[in-house]
Every structure is written in structure tokens, then in C-alpha cells.
Design brief:
Mean pLDDT: 90
Number of helices: 6
Distance between the termini: 38 Å
Order of helices and strands: HHHHHH
Largest sheet: none
Number of strands: 0
CATH topology: Four Helix Bundle (Hemerythrin (Met), subunit A)
Structural class: mainly alpha
Strand content: under 5%
CATH class: Mainly Alpha
Helix content: over 70%
Number of domains: 1
Oligomer: single chain
Shape: globular
């Protein structure tokens, strides 16, 4: 599909949405910290806006062919930080079990390993399992914030997202093993 002619004033919109998502992280954290047992429509709303902007910024960047080096790094970083904040705060509030902390742990390993692997020839591209995991984690964590603590279905969504995140991490590791120059 041919790229649409995009006015220069709009070409930075995908990056601006990523910056917005980064700016929303402390707002989200503050709203969830003051919530009663991590039940918060305002926090969930901010979280949902972050999830939607994740989809919109990537779509626009690809559609308009204005992908940037900044966006390739900042976009997944913004997602990881927002989701990790949600997991940690929901765990702290007793809404997720301790095993959920494997999500932020995985992200720390991926973020720490990326500069090392990129310098050795690894071409990091988000895979389908990683995208699906991100969508499910955004949805499940948001739903967890607005349902009663005893509601099970958001946690089922979370565990599906968790499994996909683990699958994506395994796929990244296998790809890195094949591609990294020694």
C-alpha cells in the first residue's frame, strides 16, 4: 500500500503519542496508589488511553511511513514501563499473585540485554506473540482495576497474556541465538 502524503506537522504525531504514554505513567501510578485496593476507574482510564495510543502510534507510523529510531526504542519502552507499573502495583495491592512479577523481571532482562545484543547484530522486531501479549496484558490489567477482587476472568486474560509474553521472550532468545555474531 502506498504511503499517504502526510503534512510535516503530523509526521511527529506517532512519536508525540509515545511521549504522551511515557508522561501518563506517573499519572497512572499516582491514581492507582491512592485507590482503595487498586480499584480505580480513573487509573484504569489512564491505562486504557495508554493502551489505545500504543495501537494508534504504531499504526500511524507504519501507515505514513514515518517510523523512526526514537519510536523503535521509545514505543516498546513506554509499553513495558506502563505494564510493569500496573503489574507491580496490582501485585502490591494483592490483586495479582507473586508469579505475575515475572513480567517485569522478563522486561528488565529484555531491556538490559537489548543494547548488548543490538551491538552484536541482533535486529529486534516485535513478534506477533509479543504484540498479542501486550494487548492482553493492557486489557487484563485494566479490567482488574475496575472489577471486584474476586472476579476471576480478568486474571484468566492476564495468564493468557503472561503465557504469550513468555512465548515471545523464548522466540526473542532463539532468534538472538541464531543472529548474534560472536
Amino acid at each position: 500500500m502506498a504511503a499517504r502524503a502526510v503534512p510535516a506537522s503530523l509526521q511527529q504525531l506517532p512519536n508525540a503519542l509515545t511521549l504522551l504514554r511515557l508522561a501518563l505513567i506517573p499519572v497512572f501510578v499516582a491514581l492507582l496508589l491512592v485507590a482503595d485496593e487498586a480499584y480505580s476507574w480513573p487509573a484504569a482510564s489512564v491505562f486504557a488511553v495508554a493502551g489505545v495510543t500504543d495501537q494508534v502510534d504504531g499504526f500511524l507510523a507504519r501507515r505514513w511511513q514515518v517510523e523512526s529510531a526514537f519510536g523503535r526504542i521509545a514505543d516498546p519502552l513506554a509499553d513495558r514501563l506502563m505494564i510493569d507499573a500496573g503489574v507491580i502495583l496490582l501485585w502490591h495491592a494483592g490483586r495479582l499473585p507473586w508469579l505475575a512479577l515475572a513480567i517485569p523481571a522478563r522486561d528488565v532482562v529484555l531491556m538490559a540485554g537489548y543494547p548488548l545484543l543490538a551491538g552484536r547484530g541482533y535486529d529486534f522486531e516485535v513478534n506477533l506473540a509479543g504484540k498479542a501479549a501486550t494487548w492482553l496484558l493492557y486489557a487484563s490489567l485494566g479490567f482488574t482495576m475496575v472489577t471486584a477482587q474476586s472476579t476471576a476472568w480478568p486474571r484468566w486474560l492476564f495468564w493468557i497474556g503472561f503465557a504469550l509474553a513468555a512465548l515471545a521472550a523464548a522466540q526473542y532468545a532463539l532468534k538472538a541465538r541464531r543472529e548474534v555474531k560472536t
